[in-house]
Write a structure and sequence with these properties.
The chain has 201 residues and is of the alpha/beta class. 29% of the residues lie in helices and 28% in strands.
Length: 201
């Protein structure tokens, strides 16, 4: 009869320990993993403020071990991939050119970095009839936004804009487009919208 209360106490203690241990493990699994990015990527993308992301240049792929090597400045990251890895902008992992810029969202399994999604940098194609020449933009700038009926938007990072920009341009880093569009884009659809950056990316 005396052993029953002791067994009950032990059972409660073991259960409490198991629940506490599980909560610690669960909390650790929910921690956001850090981002790491090549410095060239950070010129245009705020990857340093994100999580579970790696960005850099494709170095090589080892199909046997199902790994890819990603160059991030002078460091090398080895990333595993499997059938669940999603690839964007190319048909498959084997089609990613060496030296190409890629962005990888990842998680960790058994201490290894696994790619959840690999996105290959996609060039921007603008139809020729949608491009403006330097001369055309210069003529509009000479008129000014009101007479020329245009808005000129600088899509580069804010620090680049602050160092120098085309007269009459407004600062609109492309990664802040959704945040700034209601403030900076004209309501009048007849107003010409001109965007520029450091190059197509």
């Amino acid at each position: 009869m005396k052993s029953r209360p002791l067994c009950l106490v032990l059972a409660v203690a073991v259960t409490a320990f198991a629940v506490g241990w599980w909560q610690v493990v669960y909390a650790q699994s929910q921690e956001k993993l850090p981002a790491k990015s090549d410095s060239s990527c950070l010129k245009c993308h705020p990857y340093d403020k994100q999580f579970e992301l790696l960005a850099g240049k494709m170095v090589d792929i080892a199909h046997k071990s199902k790994t890819l090597q990603l160059g991030i400045d002078k460091d090398m990251e080895v990333i595993f991939f499997d059938d669940r890895t999603v690839v964007k902008n190319v048909p498959g992992i084997k089609d990613i050119p060496k030296g190409e810029s890629i962005r990888v969202t990842y998680d960790k399994r058994q201490g290894k970095v696994y790619a959840k999604e690999i996105e290959v940098k996609k060039g921007l194609e603008v139809p020729k009839d949608k491009l403006s020449t330097v001369e055309e933009v210069a003529a509009l700038v000479a008129l000014g936004p009101e007479k020329g009926k245009y808005v000129l938007l600088d899509g580069r990072p804010g620090s680049n804009f602050d160092q120098g920009h085309i007269p009459t341009a407004k600062k609109m880093p492309f990664f802040m487009f959704d945040e700034l569009k209601d403030k900076l884009l004209p309501q009048d659809k007849e107003v010409l919208q001109i965007y520029y950056c450091s190059g197509f990316s």
